[in-house]
Design a protein that fits this description.
Length: 253
Amino acid sequence: MRKRIVAGNWKMNKDFQDAEDLMFEIADELADKGSGETEVIVCTPYVYLEMSSDIAAENGFMVGAQNLSQWESGAYTGEISASMIHSMGISHCILGHSERRSYFGENDKIISAKVDLALKNNIIPIYCCGEVLAERQAEKHFDIVRTQITEALFHLGKEAVSEVIIAYEPVWAIGTGVTATSAQAQEMHAFIRSLLTEKYGSDVSEEISILYGGSCNAKNAAELFANPDVDGGLIGGASLIAADFVTIVNSFR
Ligand code: PGA
């Protein structure tokens, strides 16, 4: 059985005190409402990883980073390496988020190098893919996602790819309040799983969790998560409100 996962992506939000308060609120909400079988990961800004992972570890959930460097180590001022993140006890890292692709020029080659460094350092990549609105309107969304998956992941062997969590995040749904319909999400998730089956076989593809991201909230999560190929969510805005985030964690039927 593949894992059900809900991951929060705080992006570049919250000053230290607010971030610490939010971590404690999430811990309290989880203690109250539980999390069932769902794995909970909160991806916080680098500078809060130590604080947040201490609180998460004491309260039975996990913390991830939001990015890591494409280089191993050395003269790359301002960069944070996979081994640094691992040495802080961090288990997961979002890679290939559309905001990294569009604002920081990350392409599939760069993201593929990051995936390799994450895996080499025992960090589970949460690999994001998804089309922009014009690509969907031009009915190119399947081609775009196929390319993103192929270029960044398909050099991996069966064992390595089995470690990866995939997040389908249609860019037109991120932070916009427009969510993919349940049918659109299921259709793309099933497509991604079919690509994985073709390349690695169903023993591998059936074990890889595919999360939906893009304006997923406390109201629509249950409908999205009810789809057979939607194994959870990557949550931006709604992960900044502890009660909403934990409602989403508990939205599996
Ligand atoms: P959103 O962001 O939930 O605010 O749309 C999702 C994401 O960017 O991961």
